[in-house]
Amino acid sequence: MDKTFPSAASAVADIPHGASIAVGGFGINGIPSTLISAVLEAGISELDVVSNNCGIDGWGLGLLLESHRIARMTSSYVGENKEFERQFLEGELEVELIPQGTLAERLRAGGAGIPAFYTPAGVGTQVALGGMPWRYKGSGGVAVTSPVKETRDFDGREYVLELGIVTDFALVRATVGDRHGNLVFDKSTRNFNPLVATAGRITIAEVEQLVEPGEIDPQTVHTPGVFVQRVVPLTPEQAADKRIERRTTSNEMGDR
Fold first, then answer.
1. For the chain, how far is it from start to end, CA to CA, in angstroms?
2. Which Gene3D superfamilies does the entry link to (predicted)?
3. Helices marked H in 145-206 — which ranges?
């Protein structure tokens, strides 16, 4: 089955307003930047986005954020985006913050068909006790807070119940992919991408290098094609368009 689409625009054309979307990447490493831009250009709004973070100002999911296309964000780290902070504190954006390992496991569980699981992470904090601000009032105060979560004792230790995450769509970026949707991620781009790919009911993958079925060694496949419904081959220019979140330099003598 050939799952390739001629362009990112055609691959995201049926994403409706208000859809839930899981997005791969960590920081801006391994993000599906071409698909994100296509969602922006399509004018899709009121999105419920699940991603480790929300990009940076002017790039990645930050583009959707500054255009007010995101209504709700489920993340674990948002510290590099000033516009994110402004929208959250002014009541324009609802935000559910989750411990990073819990977010990863919720995506993995959702993709594996597991509705919920128990974890010790967050026990004794607002993660479990509730009351964490999800949305502020523009005039001050808190409009929406997190609910109390179920806890249970196992062998003398307390655990909190967390729900698996399944989204309408998932957007990921792979280094190599074939027409059947089998994907390979290079080095640190194999971050949240494999987890996100399994969590979407419809998963769209942009790939830097498209190969024919059978060219990828089955033992090197990170995401099997059964989880991927659409594949978008990138142009050389799109594949090379990668950015560095925080550039650091030092002189040859080193710091003194």
1. 59
2. Glutaconate Coenzyme A-transferase (3.40.1080.10)
3. 193-199
Residues whose CB falls within 8 Å of the CB of residue 67, separated by 6 or more in sequence, listed in order:
40
b/e 139-169 (16+ beta carbons within 10 angstroms → b): eeeeeeebeeeebeeeeeeebbebebbbbbb
Q: Residue 122: which H helix or E strand, with range?
A: none
Nearest 5°: the CA angle 245, 20, 26 is 20
DSSP, res 67: T
Could you tell me if 63 and 140 lie in one domain? no
Give the single-character DSSP code of 65. Answer: H
Instruction: Report the length, in residues, of the chain.
Output: 256
Q: What angle do CA 161, 199, 8 make, to 5 degrees?
A: 150
Question: Which among 34, 39, 35, 60 has a CA at the least distance from the CA of 236?
Answer: 34
- Statement to judge: residues 1 and 109 lie in one domain: yes
Q: Which two tokens stand for residue 157?
A: 């230790």
pLDDT, tens digit (0-9, with 9 covering 90-100), for 41-97? 999 999 999 999 998 989 999 999 999 999 999 999 887 789 999 999 999 999 999
User: Is there a domain that residue 137 lies in?
Assistant: yes
Residue 37 φ/ψ, nearest 5 degrees: -65, -35
Is 89 part of a structural domain of the chain?
Answer: yes
Report how far residue 132's alpha carbon sits from residue 182's, in angstroms, rounded to the nearest whole number: 39
Residues 135 and 154 both lie in one domain: yes
Which residues form the domain of 124?
A: 117-163
24 touches 196 (CB < 8 A):
yes
Q: How many domains does the chain have?
A: 2
Please write the tens of the pLDDT for every residue from 103-128: 999 999 999 999 999 999 999 999 99
Evaluate whether residue 198 is within a structural domain: yes
The two structure tokens encoding residue 222: 């990170």
Does some domain include residue 215? no
